[in-house]
């Protein structure tokens, strides 16, 4: 078999040389000519035809050889962060001129050659610079010699929201299908030592079968999500590993092959190790050599492979080599007897300090953008359906905002990282601003279609989530021309609901009644329908009688609060009859300052934990509490205290008609001192407890939902020995939760990282819920930047205590993260909507609507939802628009099967923990509303 392959390679090589000579003599074909676009289309077509012909007739049988004969698969690539070696602009230029363009030239002249691009962002950038080369890309993608990964880039998976991860597949695999007719079935995320719990399901349901992973014990894995969806994952240990075996730098810094005897020695040893491993898991003896490293230029291995196959493979009894793609490599190991090691659930990131605590303002903009984009999609879709014209849906604006929102990958910092980090932050801030504009525009448009029955100032409160909610709503009112309020009193208005019932409200401190343009009002909106709205009215009045008495104490129907020096000394839940905090060491909501020496993504094998060098906490001082708010909706207290590196302001806000306490913390004038870390502490009064937190499209239970293993040895002296369940702190989306079974505490979080382990001296055994506010570390790139973030920083947390488990805490946590949106409405012409309405509802508290959006390819509506309770079931969906047909689709909207539907409803089957997508086809010839 080996001699047969050698003979075939000789035939191919000879044919290639003769064709090359012919082309040079007859049509002037040279790679450099093609690169300068000086060859006419006829010549290009001849070259491509001959390339395809010989690939089909000579090369392709060799590449797809289904025999069990062992082989080395050379997967040529170059690992690329958006920017790590240099700025984004410099890296874009490199990927074009020194990576992809040379690879295309090699593909033209060598029919054996294969090249892999890790993600579609590289192709986006390349086509921006070289739009005329689209046909070349399409040709080589379609014939399988150029490969592209199925994600837009290589993100920190658990940093992003679920919908943001889904958009990686929209602008990854779906874009490749639509633009090139190319079906990518492998995702590359070869650098980050992490895996999100639901990412195998997201990949599998987007049609992605494989993942090229990294910084995991070398080998193959069946990686599953909790619903049972799975992908086959391969880890090379580190994407540099094969290049360390094959290559070295010469004196000029160019990558060249090591001495052959050294390569033979190392590969012989590896084959012995691999053979044993492959036999254990019934994997065919196919070995992948990912030839990749940061900024590696394409290498011509033709002579090396030819010599290896003709001489070394025969003489040393080693497998022959062939160029390959990751897909062909994965397919080569397919075997009905495969018994791969199964991993289920999250692999927590050990690099989380680099994005959350070290880039607070950027991540805050990103987290807000992901929420706002999801809400804006829902209400822009609803607005378009109300007009019976989905052409009004702003597709291009959403496309650009989503591309900005998912642009930052795992390469924060690096060489010239201050520029990279600024680019990332600007992208996220642009997405946030664009999403806010899209949301506001749709809500204002919908509100003009509401028939207002009262003569007051209409206020419409919108609910972007899929369950009914009673929560605080904040309104910025411009009453100019609508009323002339009495000065210095809030009795010039009454707030009425749509039933005419008067409701309490209060005006924010600092708002002057003389400033008619910015009057900020707070009230509790009750029973706002799912994915709908409710109307309130502000009615001007002259009388000052009937003044509501503000509550000035720290006790209401839910809680009794005792304030201490720097936080809450005691918090008693009157409904549960429980003391919530245990404050002998730390107060509730107290700020602490730790020493935190580390280098961002330099936590290569485990997280670099803070310590108590120069430790301080707020209760070391004696700050004085001041009442800052007093009203029928909430009461508030604040303290200010100068500590070592900044001024701290802490505000505690107690709501009276909903069971909720807000904690607002500001670090003012933070001076950027290196290696400091700030946390808030919520010391919860529990001895035995279960901890959960919010991850993309799911709930993670600590100690249960992680993979049941350590990462293992990856390269050099880097070995992940820490069990996944023991890794802390953790990435969190919107909330974290702890419960005993009898009661639970849920905290909605504005930050991306939290901890629960006491890292101070004499650590306590009860849970210390600790959002990590800020950490001043530095890039692990030796030429990288510091992440110091001097200036002012604001943080917000909402706490409640309750019966039940994390699924009950989910509704509170998500609600606080996705607040109700109150707008001052304008009266429109010919309004027809009622004062209170739900546009779409799903029965059951365990099913969550992730998005409602216009379909990408037609005028249908996409509904995506996920199940959090682990029970599954059949769920009933009610829609305000009539349906002509419905389909279940995959994640990127390819139809799978038709569903039965009523005029305004359908039943959907969702298995435990599943993410499901449905296409709803509107009947625009029917009645628009129920």
Question: How do the strands and helices of this protein lay out in sequence?
Answer:
Layout: H1 2-26, H2 31-35, H3 41-63, E1 71-76, H4 88-109, E2 115-117, H5 120-129, H6 134-142, E3 146-148, H7 162-180, E4 186-188, H8 199-204, E5 210-213, E6 219-224, E7 230-235, H9 241-246, E8 247-249, E9 255-257, H10 260-280, E10 286-291, H11 302-315, E11 321-324, H12 326-332, E12 341-344, H13 360-386, H14 395-405, H15 417-447, E13 457-463, E14 469-477, E15 493-497, E16 502-503, E17 505-507, E18 519-528, E19 532-540, E20 559-564, E21 567-573, E22 578-579, E23 590-595, E24 611-617, E25 626-630, E26 634-642, E27 647-655, E28 661-670, E29 676-683, E30 690-695, E31 698-701, E32 712-715, E33 718-720, E34 730-731, E35 735-739, E36 744-749, E37 753-755, E38 768-775, E39 777-778, E40 786-787, E41 791-802, H16 806-817, E42 821-824, E43 836-838, E44 840-842, E45 847-854, E46 861-867, E47 873-879, E48 883-889, E49 895-899, E50 905-910, E51 915-922
Parallel strand pairs: 1-10, 1-11, 2-3, 4-5, 5-7, 6-12
Antiparallel strand pairs: 6-7, 8-9, 13-19, 13-42, 14-18, 15-16, 15-19, 17-18, 19-43, 20-21, 21-22, 23-24, 23-29, 25-26, 26-27, 27-28, 28-41, 29-38, 30-31, 30-35, 32-33, 34-37, 35-36, 36-41, 37-38, 39-40, 44-47, 45-46, 46-51, 47-50, 48-49, 48-51
Helix pairs in contact: 1-3, 1-11, 4-5, 13-14, 13-15, 14-15
